[in-house]
Amino acid sequence: MWLVIIQLKIGIILTFFSLLFAVASLAERKILARIQNRRGPNRVGPCGLFQPIADGIKMLIKEDVVPRKADRALHFLAPIVMVAPMVLLFGILPYGGGLTLVDLEVGLLFFFAVSSVSELAVFMAGWSSANKYSVFGAMRAIAQMVSYEVPLVLVAITPVMVAGSLSLVHMVEDQAGYAIGVIPNWFVLTPWGIVGFLLLFVTSLAEANRTPFDLPEGESELVAGHLTEYSGFKYALFFMGEYFGIFAGSGLAVALFLGGGGAPLPLLQWIPPYLWFFVKLVVLVGIVIWVRASLPRMRIDQLMDLCWKGLVPLAFVNLIAAAIWHYSGGGWQGWILAGGLLVGAYLMLNRVVLRSRCSWERKYYLAKS
Amino acid sequence: MNVVLFIIAALILVGALATVCVRNLVYCALSLAATFAALGMLYLALGAEFIGWVQILVYVGAVAVLIVFVILLTAPDRMRSVGPLFSRSRILGVGVSLGVFGTIAYAVHKSGSLKGSLSMPAETDMQSIGEELLSSYLVPLEATGVLLTVALIGAVLFAREEPVEGSEESQESKD
Amino acid sequence: MSTLQVLLTVSALLFCLGLTAALTRRSVIMILIGIELMLNAANLNFIVFWRAHGDSDPSGGFMFALFGIAVAAAEAAVGLALILLVYRHYRSTRSEDLNKLKG
Fold first, then answer.
1. Where are the domains of chain A?
2. Dihedral angle at the C-alpha atoms of A313, A315, A321, A326, nearest 10 degrees?
């Protein structure tokens, strides 16, 4: 019996995310088109609604080209190694309301351990293609992912510290309830929570290689980075892995800072928690698309400067702020102390580090000689 | 239970053998990653959940990726190591390893205290691990923190290009 | 043989494979990979013994493995930075090319 229930849950979760993948790829093109004053896909079905189906069929029947000099085994394995871990990530997200699949005691650790495997997939794709653009794209992608993993983990530690557990379900339970009867107890409504949520959002964008951090596949310089030599369904798998990475990252942000399946108002608690979870997730994905339309791509040195000189120190300060908040017991003292610390750190970083004269000039450490 | 352990152990050994024997450096690094992942699985099967995932996070996600990155940076054209299959040093090396393995295996086989079966240790949940780390293991924890900081700074210093005399960078360091 | 002995033999084999890589391979990167394998064999031993004799000290071997992983990660980072430095200096990562005391 329980086996059937688990199968059902897996079915629901996988169906939801596959559908979301289709809808998001269409929505992305439509929203981008609207922002750029175009029409976007409008040929297939009413208002181009069936475009994802057409795209899928096109991907499936396209020729699967493998370069002659490519390493066939790795070229074949890379898309699988890319997608498989991302699918695993959906298993531990705390949807709530009985839909949660597993409540791992080390859930957060599992999330980072499994998602870090995709870096190897990027390398396999880049190296096996036997193409200079692919190798450069893969190197950029790996450097970027390794660097942004540091602030990502540092930020994710703060809710662990406050909730006292690595389990995502436990963290969501910690955010249940309402202050003064109306304001939800979400972590995002604390000074360290706002900063943490924004940092988490930015770093997950970078982890998923999304604009403005999509240098690894910058068309104007690297063709398509590690995806250059992929076509047909393998390319679709990479695309899917990227989207699933965004979904999982948004799910993590929802679980850690946005209260998981908690309703924003006590009045709305009759709506089941997993629906709230999915609503929040879809909103975050929408913001990701919006960001893509609004921001230009960064340069590689700006990217690294932002990570090591901006996000990492801010994440450390955020850790301290969360500790101060925790031991001052919240309330207005917490707001003044933790908030003041964070604002001060942000202003200082902004003035001293990020805006200093030389930090935006290009420096070549490895490309020389 | 035991069957699972044996399958994972076989995976580990196959991965390690491939790491050592394959001539292509990239394949070596990738089979090394597979070996690390299989080791993480073995830890999970042995009931050390935390260590298992830490193993995968640190080794597959960081160390293997770093090795791969260095391979890309250093030898993109000459991935294959050349040289005769049976050189004197190679035979000597294999001989030494076989000797070491023989000694350890003999000791393990003959030792009387290793006959017992695996017992389940007391439950270790995350709470108790955290408390232990910050109480009885506080000094090692702090020492590890210092070590990691030193390693970080050292690695950055090493990997950085030495500033050329009179360049902008050496002037910066004088300021 | 008991399961304990089998696992210890696996760990010994892993150690010796790492030793073989460190002793016979020419690339500096392969030597580092061999050292990583040996460190992992040691960690495996800690976990296996923790599992077998964990009743007297419920977290000793566990913690030792944890610190072992941290130290091995630091070692890998510094080692790879050294390899990069060596490569920049000699334009090679083969150990027999690194034969000058002054470069």
1. 2-356
2. -150
- State the angle between helix axes of C28-53 and B25-45 in degrees (0 to 180), rounded to the nearest 10: 10
Q: Report how far residue A313's alpha carbon sits from residue A166's, in angstroms, rounded to the nearest whole number.
A: 23
Q: Is residue C102 part of a domain?
A: no
Decide if B126 and A143 are in contact by the 8 Å CB cutoff: no
**A94: cis peptide before it, omega within 30°?**
no
Residues of chain C under the 50 pLDDT cut? none
Q: Do C26 and B158 touch (CB under 8 A)?
A: no
Q: Does residue C73 form part of some domain? A: yes
**Would you give the DSSP letter of residue C95?**
G
- State whether residue A365 sits within 8 Å of chain B by CB: yes
Between A357 and A248, residue with greater pLDDT: A248
Amino acid at A121: A
Q: Is A304 touching B (CB cutoff 8 A)?
A: no
CA distance A97 to A120: 35
> Which of the pair, A355 or A52, is modelled with greater confidence?
A52
ipTM of the complex: 0.87
Interchain CB contact of C97 with B (< 8 Å): no
From the list A222, A226, A219, the residue with the least C-alpha distance to A122 is A226
Is the per-residue pLDDT at B172 higher than 50? no
Reported as type and span, the H/E element at residue A115 is helix A107-115
- The backbone torsions φ and ψ at residue A127, rounded to the nearest 5 degrees and listed phi first, read -75, -40
Residue in A77, A92, A117, A128 to test binding to B, most B beta-carbons within 10 Å = A117
Question: Is C70 inside any structural domain?
Answer: yes
In a domain, C68, yes or no: yes
CB contact under 8 A, C9 and B108: yes
Joined tokens for residue A189: 């409504």
C-contacting chains (≥3 CB pairs under 8 Å)? B
Tokens of A343: 């604002």
Per DSSP, the three-state class of A246 is helix
Tokens 């050496």 identify what position? Answer: B170
Confidence (pLDDT) at B36:
93
Q: The domain spanning residue C17 has which CATH number? A: 1.10.287.3510
- In tens, the pLDDT along C42-64 reads 999 888 888 877 666 777 788 88
Q: Which helix (H) or strand (E) holds A178?
A: strand A178-179
Question: Which DSSP category does B165 fall into?
Answer: T
Residues A151, A312 contacting (CB under 8 angstroms): yes
Average pLDDT, chain A: 83
More confident residue, A2 or A282: A282
Judge: A74–B69 Cβ closer than 8 Å, yes or no: no
Q: Which of A97, A99, A100, A102 is nearest to A269 (CA)?
A: A97
C61: containing domain: 3-97
Query: What are the pLDDT digits (tens) for A77-133?
Result: 889 998 999 898 888 888 877 778 888 888 899 999 998 888 888 888 888 888 888
Distance CA A350, CA A298 (A): 17
- Structural domain total, chain C: 1
